[in-house]
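To start, an entry.
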Amino acid sequence: MAGETGPIIHTTSLPVAMLLAGFFAIAVYNSLEIYIAIYRTFRRRRGLYFWSALCANTGIPILSLSCLLRFFDVAPAGPMGIVIDIGWWMMVTGQCLMLYSRLHLVIGDPGKLRWVLGMIIAAFLFIEVPVGALFIVNSFYDNSNVKTPITAVFDGMEKMQLVILSLVESLLSGLYVYEWSGMRKDIEIIKGRKVRTLYHELNSSANLLTNIVAIQFANLFQVQTTYKPVVYSIKLKVETYVLSNLANLVSSSASCERGLEFPIDMPLDTTASDPWQHQRTPSEGSTARMAKSGGVIDARGLSLSSTLSGKSALQMPKKSLSV
């Protein structure tokens, strides 16, 4: 099996070799763009979201370069098999963890979040690690491009791995779409068209892995191995953009709900129900001026008078409700 046990430079045609080199160039270029976007987007470079995105993006050039060196016999197949596995684990598991790190924006149930994290860890331990071990053994055992029993087992396990990982990532993306479809009507009242646009973006990011599975079942190992970093780099660019939009939209909507306007039935003299009271405590001078004016709220709404005790917002003129 070309590529599964060793180099392919002596068995592949020039057009296929040029295609593989083109995939490598696209993946590395996308990865460089993502590095720039990550360091421009993240103000605080810490947390699971930042490190998982950085890990997933670092896995892309590692996997691409090691595949290129292995396939064209620039480096020995065995050690390159280890590097390929490391790059694959970083790229795939990193993207899964990146999706998980922002799942709390649409799911408030900690039990569901723990279940999703357990699924990601189980996929890594029971699917990715065994298949990676088979690939390393296959690389050291025989590099004669002859199908051996180990190669046959690896070939079946590799197809199963791609199907399961595609299902896991589709489930993660599907959770975003499902949960967002349930809450978008409320947020759409505030944000309008942005909510509908984000819903379509979430749908588009969930359908990028099916073509990799199709290429794998066509027994084109060398093509799908170099094509995977391209697809995952595009997927990572889309997900980084969509998740950033989701975080901004949810946080701004939450700010509007807690915002600077008093509910019409909120007593204006209740300190506990006024979250902005500590930011606009009146000075002594302003308090004296308010007392002289009969306890009317300042035109900018920056202070409250104690003479309004017991009056509701419905009893106040509209100008006094703006903050």
User: Anything to note?
Assistant: Residues 149-191 form the longest helix (43 residues). Confidence is low (pLDDT under 50) at residues 257-323. DSSP finds nine helices and no strands in the chain. The radius of gyration is 28 Å.
